[in-house]
Design a protein that fits this description.
Blueprint: H1 2-23, H2 33-44, E1 62-67, E2 77-82, E3 88-92, H3 99-106, E4 110-112, E5 114-120, E6 123-128, E7 136-138, H4 139-161, E8 166-172, H5 174-191, E9 200-206, H6 214-223, E10 229-233, H7 261-266, H8 272-309, E11 330-332, H9 337-342, H10 356-364
Helix pairs in contact: 2-10, 3-4, 3-8, 4-5
Amino acid sequence: MKKSSAFIFFFLFTCFLFTQSAKGQRLQPGFDKAEYIEFLKITAHQLDTPWKKGSIPLPEHFHLAYRSPTVGLDNRWDLWLRDDGALGIISVRGTTPNNISWLENFYSAMIPAAGTIQLADTQIFKYHLSADPKAAVHIGWTIGLGFMAPGIVAQINEQYAKGMRQFIISGHSQGGAIAYLLTSYLYDLRSTGKIPKDLIFKTYCSAAPKPGNLYYAYSYEQLTAGGWACNVVNPADWVPQTPFSVQTINEQPPVNPFKGARKSIRSMRFPQNIAIGYLYGRLNGGTRKAQRRFEKYLGNMAGAQVKKALPGYKQPRLYPSADYVRTGNMITLSPDSAYYQRFPDTSSNVFIHHMMGPYLYLINKY
């Protein structure tokens, strides 16, 4: 009898420890294939996205706990909770078929990575995504972040009060671009004590475009160093190569060999100075002219359309750059001949390599 009681006690105690261990399972740094697959399934069930095709199953271990209202330029996000209540996934919706959602993508002039934006007559968004004054980010996606940020922070605080301490920040396509910025935003709030300091964040961007310039990338990569963020890309997908980039001499650090180039060229002997000066002027002038055109068409002119969609919005000061770069740790998938047989290149569907199906197919083979 005593042996039987001891065995029952040991069995129950072991079950208790196992339950507590599972419930308290902490996020670990580094790419986790199972986590990413769950996120892809969540993204596929956010609806209203042009890449939602086929019958992708629901996630195995998460359920939808909250869906935000649609705000800003057709932005929305979900909160999915793991069944043990120990982890939340903040999933930012990507581009929708609506014109204003595409306008958010095309509104791609840069703004400083720290500042304020007047989103509406009574709504001002203060953001700090990098401490580097040379860091700059995509204006359209920052506006999207601004409209969603208050609701996201409110839900984080609500779940924190219930005992949750860890969240995955995620998004596919436009959602991934905003997930970059959201990660920087939440890290800043945590470091300044505006949200609890014991919160743990891990980021999965997927098929994400480039969110900002090289100095923003440096800041983001330092912030998430050690495996706390990644961007999963399919090399056949064109979206991660956007927005287009234009690098000028002004993008270089203050100490560089190009700063005094004209002075050095003038000191050369004739006719070298004339020939090289002409070539330098053509190369330097061409990139600067292209950058100004980007700012004109994808900044001021696109901004005029945004003002029509968002009454009370005031465009902030633009940053004179279009030097968009790949950002963060890249997880590169490997499309092979079997992949292209299943998902062949076609001009009739430019999103064929950008959809959930191809990414889920490739990650299962990863």
